[in-house]
Structures are given as C-alpha cells and as structure tokens.
Amino acid sequence: MKIDLTDTTASKINKALVQGRRAIGTPAVGMVLTMVIVTDEENAYDSIKAAEEASHEHPARTLVVIKRHARTPRDRTRSHLDAEVRVGADAGTGETVVLRMYGEVSEHADSVVLPLLLPDAPVVVWWPVEAPDNPAKDPLGALAQRRITDLYTTENPLVELEARARSYAPGDTDLAWTRLTPWRSMLAAALDQARVPIVSATVEAEADNPAAELLARWLEARLHVTAERVVTAGPVVTGVRLGTENGEIVIDRPEGPLATLSLPDQPSRTLALKVRTTSELIAEELRRLDADEMYAIALRGEATKENPSDV
C-alpha cells in the first residue's frame, strides 16, 4: 500500500503510517530499528530495494531522505516536503517513507527525520553515495548508533579512506570493509590450521581498491608484518598470500564465485567466495550495532597483540 503526501509535515506522515497499518490489518509495530538512507533520486531505487531485502532479516522503518535541487527561482525560496508512505507488500517486512525535501527544509533534514524515528529503537544511517566528510558530526549521523558509508562509490577511494581514518568515531563502518568478511573468516580459519608464524603478506587486487587496502592494513596490524600490495586485473580482491617458513598460505580467486585455498603440505581445496549483493552487506551490518573495533584497527592500521585468528 502506498500513500502520497504533498507539501506535508512529520505529523501527517506519522498519521499516514498508522492509517496504512490499520488498512492492511497490522496495527502493531514489530520493527526493531530505524534505517535512514540519505541518497539522491538517481540511486534511491536501488538503495530502497536493498533495504527492503535486508528488512526480511531485520524488520525496520526505513526513512529515505532525498534532497531535491531547485529547478526554478520559485523553488529556491519555497520550502516544502513531499512524502511517499509504503506499508505491507510495498515495503518488505517493515515500513518505508520516502522524503523529498525542497528548499530550506533540505538543510534541516534532521528536524524532519527526528519525529519519525521509532521510539526506543536503534538508528542506522546509510549513505549509499556522497557521504559527509565526518559522518559522526553530520546532523543525521549524530542521531545514529551506526553510520554506514561505501568507499566504492567515491571518485578517489584511497584518498577518501585517509579522510575516514582521520574522522573515525565509534559506530562508523564502511561496506568496503563488510565485503571482506568472507576473506577474513577464511584467512582466520587457515591460520588456525597452519599454526606457524607469518613472515610476509601480499594482497592482490585491482588498482585503487579500498577493500584491498583495508585488508592489507588489517593483516599488517594483526600479523605484525608489512603487507605488499600487488595490482592485478581484478575484479576486486583476487588473492592473498601469507608467507611462512614452511611455504605459502594462499587464497586465490581470479574470477567467479570460487576460490582456491592452499596450505603448506596440504592438498588445495575449492571454497565458495562470491561477491555479495548490497542487501546482503546491509543485512550483515544490521546484525551488530556496537562499535566495529576491527574496522577501526584496519582503517587506522593500528597494531594489536591479540590472537590473529580473532576476526
């Protein structure tokens, strides 16, 4: 069910949500968090679709903030808010409110979003594109326990990565880091099996890949070695090599969803290591809303003396 509201207010949107729930016969609110998506019109559809798919695992109220550019001089002076309320089958397992902001109201999006947050529920803010320089100090980011960005959507990801390292605050995370979870899990399992000191590390990936840089920094911090960066044709991360006195531990994925794991004095084995969808990445991030300490370590390249198998 969809309800369109023109030149509306947060109060009217809340009433429309109640009206929509009653109309579909589910007056109770069974959602566990509020997700705020800050995007543009071009990327709104894909972002909403990913959030709705993730809501099957994490029922949420999704607030989509779209700041519209003025097309005429009148638009620049006229401040108003349009909304589209979606409930039931049109909103996954939660609720979706698309907020289109015009004029001055777009500069105060937090004042619109605040009355629409679920009471006593965590808030997650996701910028699919064009994240602020300091997400924690952004007016919308300040409302959230978790702030999700994506270095893959930036023009200069490695430059932006350094900026994220400088502005990091507990609760920040990035989908470039989330994409590495299968790699980190596989490497941790390999280290548990090998039980030998690591003397070198190499990360192979396409040029300027932010996930590869985070992976290299994570290996350096966890294993206390210098990780060599090797540029390949891609796509994304294609291999990791860990040198030991007995030979190399190698995870190789030149292309496709399968990788080859090789350990010294053991036969090679084939493992699943596919590139995951955005909805899968978002669903993973919503499973834990506390500070991601491993991301902070990888982002800043901070050394740690903890067990390397602890991912």
From TrEMBL:
Matches recorded under InterPro entries: G6PDH_assembly_OpcA, OpcA_G6PD_C, OpcA_G6PD_N
Alphabetical list of Pfam families matching this protein: OpcA_G6PD_assem (PF10128), OpcA_G6PD_C (PF20171)
Lineage of producing organism: Bacteria, Bacillati, Actinomycetota, Actinomycetes, Kitasatosporales
Domain Glucose-6-phosphate dehydrogenase assembly protein OpcA N-terminal per the UniProt entry, residue ranges: 51-165
Glucose-6-phosphate dehydrogenase assembly protein OpcA C-terminal domain boundaries: 170-299
Native species: Streptomyces muensis
Domain of life: Bacteria
The protein, known as: Glucose-6-phosphate dehydrogenase assembly protein OpcA
